[in-house]
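Input record (one chain):
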Amino acid sequence: MKFWDRKKEVEYLKRYIQSEPNAILFVYGPKSSGKSTLLYHVVSELSKRKGFVKKYDVFWYDLRGRLISSYKDVIDIFFKMEDTETGKFISSVESETSFGIPVIANFKIRTSMREEFYSKLADPFEYMEAVLMKGKKRHIIVFDELQRLKDVYINGERKVVDALFNFFVRLTKVLHLAHVIVMSSDTFFIEEIYKSSSLENTSRYYLVDYFDDETTKEILLNEGYSREEANYIVSWIGGVPWLLEEVINEGNKGSFKEVVHALYREVLSKVKLKLLEEKSKNEKFYKKEIEFLSYLMNDKLIFEDTEVLKRLAELEILYYDPINDRITPHTKLHERAIKEVLNSILE
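The corresponding structure, as predicted from the sequence alone:
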């Protein structure tokens, strides 16, 4: 995703990274709001400063698209084993990202130690802490979509994420050894963490939202659109980075309206299909969803059915911000689509 300057967010993250580690930072926001792109940019900019690479290590774990169903899978995310034939470790440094950041993929261990971790005869977090304590570097540990671990258990009882957060608190609040940044678009996961008494006074929450209308217009003006064209695009798609990129890449030859309308038809089709599937599964629950959407569109949301809200958010029809207590359509295109669907149902 293309990076458009976010001065406020960039400065905040730079200050956080360069300060003494003292709290876990949860960077949250709607899907495709540019969270990962923003953090890549910040770390890339910092890495160009003299002495930064000597002072910091960056561990980056992107859990999107990974099959994670067991505790063993989690161990394999964190640790790189020796090659059984040569006895040598496979490199623990991944290829540089598109932003030129050399990131450490995992911790190196012997195969025998992996088996101890698998069987829970050894504590992987104690080992990682010991490794991080060596030397004089500070560490930046980034997790992208950590909520993918929320249903994984240790011994069928303790959640892996609970153990991880205890480890994170120790690294940040207790030892001041590492910055831990958790990025997530799952705001119900964020809400669960936010309400957790065990993480009180150990965490910060930072919203990376879509661009506001004025910022979006400035982006479009800088891309060569007229004020009238920018106003039109913003009125339809708002400041969703990936939608803006689609319009700019595909509609720069005077066909931007066609691109905008094609994007809308795609969103409308998906909203209709998702709601029809909901109706086929449970008509009573579907009626609650329609009622919820109707109240929201008419600014009369007088009840809060958590299960309905959670489902509509899972379907990416609505977006829920628990920190700021905000419920909105997922994008402006979704708002238009919801209104059109409701009009057809309620006619």
